[in-house]
Specification:
The chain has about 210 residues and is an alpha+beta fold. The protein is about 25% helix and about 45% strand. The chain folds into 2 domains: about 100 residues, no CATH class; about 100 residues, 3-Layer(aba) Sandwich (Aminopeptidase). The chain has an 11-stranded mixed β-sheet with strand order 1-2-3-4-11-5-10-9-8-7-6, with helices on both faces. The relative contact order is 0.22. Bound molecules: coenzyme A. Coenzyme A (COA) binds next to strand 9, helix 4 and helix 5. It comes from Kribbella karoonensis. This is N-acetyltransferase domain-containing protein. Pfam families: Acetyltransf_10 (PF13673). InterPro entries: Acyl_CoA_acyltransferase, GNAT_dom.
Length: about 210
């Protein structure tokens, strides 16, 4: 279930983060991140969860540096069956047809800055002399992926994140990109739902046990 959406999201997510080394092993996507604390990501559907866990557990040094994202209806139950991997959190794979996303303007007195590269759109909102909110969207032939949507705590619930999402969607649609995906945190999910995004599946976020 959701194999294609998961693949589209993984490709865009990797592109948004600059992780260019990805390969398929036993129907698991293995993304070499290269950070000493976050060396590798294994992305898989539930049918391939055991293969992903096996790959992660055979490449688990230093402890806690191999991460997994697995699409499953019940992340906590799956995590219990994949011990000794550590359950970290649940996220949600979401999608939208971008022309249908609700649009909201940047509220005063904030100002928007956009960096529009061929495969990446970066949006930053400034106000009261500081960076208040930001977000990114990668644009690939497989669609768009929103990533790193964030509002500084002092500026929350003023409509900044929805203005960031609106700017990203407008720019992506101008490039004839329609379908978008993202992986939502528990905190971000109400924002995306309020903009019209729908949830495809929960995602288990796990990692190899840390010391
Ligand atoms: C999630 C986050 C980006 C929201 O930023 P924000 O600028 O406060 O969001 P907005 O003000 O644009 O909210 C728009 C709508 O989203 C929903 N929403 C946003 N934050 C919410 C919250 N904490 N609880 C419930 N609904 C929320 C509401 O419907 C809100 O509209 P309303 O304020 O009129 O009710 C911000 O809380 C954040 O940076 N969190 C930490 C990082 C994170 O989790 N990012 C998401 C990664 S997927």
């Amino acid at each position: 279930m959701h194999d294609e959406a998961l693949t589209r999201w993984q490709r865009g997510w990797s592109a948004a983060r600059g992780w260019n080394d990805a390969q398929r092993v036993d129907d698991v996507t293995v993304v070499r991140v290269g950070d000493p604390h976050h060396r590798v990501e294994y992305v898989a559907t539930e049918q391939n969860a055991r293969a992903a866990a096996h790959l992660a557990l055979t490449d688990c040094n230093p402890p806690g540096t191999s991460w997994l994202k697995i699409a499953t209806a019940d992340p906590e139950q799956l995590a219990a069956g994949l011990r000794p991997l550590d359950y970290v959190r649940t996220e949600w794979l979401m999608t939208i047809s971008l022309p249908e996303q609700a649009l909201h303007p940047v509220p005063a007195p904030y100002a928007v800055e956009v960096t529009d590269d061929p495969s990446l759109i970066d949006v930053q909102l400034y106000g009261y002399g500081e960076l208040a909110a930001a977000g990114r969207m990668s644009i690939l032939h497989t669609g768009a992926v929103a990533d790193m949507i964030h509002t500084d705590t002092a500026h929350r619930r003023r409509g900044l994140a929805r203005a960031v999402m609106s700017t990203l969607a407008t720019r992506a649609v101008a490039r004839h990109t329609t379908t978008a995906h993202l992986s939502a945190s528990a905190e971000g999910r109400p924002l995306y739902t309020s903009l019209g995004w729908t949830t495809l599946t929960p995602l288990l976020v796990a990692r190899t046990a840390s010391l």
